Amino acid sequence: MPDVQSIEICDWLIQHTPELRIETAGQSRLVSSGLHLASRFATDLESGQIFDYLPESMFPRVINRSDFPRTLVLDKWTCNSDGRQAVFAQNPPRRGYVATLCCDFSYVVS
Prior knowledge:
By secondary structure, the chain is α+β, with helices and mostly antiparallel strands. The protein contains two helices and seven strands. The two termini are 22 Å apart.
């Protein structure tokens, strides 16, 4: 998982950033203002590449594939029922990919 930190999201930012929406079951709604969890980007785009999909034949080249079952156990233990997503970063000179398992950080911290 990427590093996370709490951030304050204000009403002005929500109104002026069309991407700050939560999409669930085909419906879109505004994010609420307040404290949220934010994650760092998975790689430095100046030196590496990031992919949101890898063909199944490329999975053996994922360096940290053992993180997938551990993350699934954590999701089940915490009753996380939303979709799961991973992004795959490739940073030269590495020949493989590093998976970053993403969480849904759309919940307000109280």
